[in-house]
Amino acid sequence: MKPNKTLGQNFLANKGIIAKIIQAAHLTGAETVLEIGPGKGALTFELARAAKKVVAVEKDKALVKLLMQELAARNVSNVEVITDDILKFLVSGFRFQVSGYTVVANIPYYLTSALIRALLEHEHQPYNIVLTIQKEVAQRICAKDGKESILSLSVKFYADPKILFYVSRGSFFPIPNVDSAVIEIAPRPGKQKADPDAFFTLVKAGFSSPRKKLASNLAEKLSLEKPTLERVFAETGIDQKARAETLSLDQWITLTKHIK
Q1: Binding residue per annotation — 14?
Q2: Are 114 and 89 in contact (CB under 8 A)?
Q3: Which pTM does this prediction carry?
Q4: Do the annotations mark residue 4 as ligand-binding?
Q5: In sequence order, what are the residues at sequence separation of 6 or more whose Cβ sits closer than 8 angstroms to the Cβ of residue 7?
């Protein structure tokens, strides 16, 4: 079956990498795994061997039919295949009757940012997330202080991300134009340190013009007066000449609490 370019389909074909992903997920055999975009099922069948149940959400109806036929042929009974767009599924059809679940998936690159945010902000947050994504995006998510972005802060607000290993483009079919990385995103349970709406409003304002100073962006986008900003920066110990990318997560949280 020919991959659908419009759906960003690049099937993981390297069995050694698939084995490393299964190992990295630390599955015990007792959990439910949510797989996004199972494709032809190369990862799905290995997940089925390692987990109690796999819920595989696939948008491509032709691939769903192919996967279900293969599952039946191999007598695999612990995989539930759902035909849906994953973002719509998370909003309307997500009803896992389990105490917790893990996400393990090789996802289309275009879906990365929206999917991670949807998972981390969901009412039923996963225990752990292991994703194969574009290498450069993984590096942006795990950026250190001084190179933060809206994406990295959005992830770090809810979870602790780390790159587990890199995957060469030759491990996929068809071969993509970029290399990949397997990233683990471990959600932090419990209440967040700042109000999410206030935090993300502030971050988006701060990054509205990345080349400008943070204070200028906040003044422009949030209509904050100069004396107010000077006081806030003085109280938080943040340099008034700082740019948004140089602030750490903790500094953004502190700033959020000081700007009402």
Answers
A1: no
A2: no
A3: 0.91
A4: no
A5: 59, 60, 108
Q: What is the average pLDDT across 150-173? A: 95
Query: In whole angstroms, what is the distance from residue 117 CA to residue 120 CA?
Result: 5
**Do 227 and 111 lie in a common domain?**
no
Domain boundary among 136, 164, 187: 187
Domain edge (last residue) among 187, 220, 238: 187
Neighbours of 156 (CB within 10 A): 20
Q: How far, in Å, CA of 161 to CA of 186, rounded? A: 6
On whether both 105 and 204 belong to a single domain, the answer is no
Query: Is 37 assigned to a binding site?
Result: yes
214 in a labelled binding site: no
> Has residue 4 got a pLDDT over 60?
no
The whole domain housing 47 covers 5-187
Single-letter amino acid, residue 20: K
> Among residues 81, 133, 77, which one has the least CA distance to residue 105?
133
- The pLDDT of residue 159: 96
Q: Which two tokens stand for residue 37?
A: 């975009």
Write the DSSP symbol of residue 246.
Answer: G
Residue 12 annotated as binding site: yes
- pLDDT at residue number 191: 80
Q: How far is CA 147 from CA 110, 152, 208, 216, 256, in A?
A: 22, 9, 15, 19, 19
Q: Tell me whether residue 46 is annotated as binding.
A: no
The count of domains in the chain is 2
Which residues of the chain form beta strands (DSSP E)?
Answer: 11-12, 32-36, 53-58, 79-83, 101-106, 128-134, 159-167, 172-173, 180-187
At 159, which CATH number? 3.40.50.150
Partners of residue 72 on adjacent β-strands: none
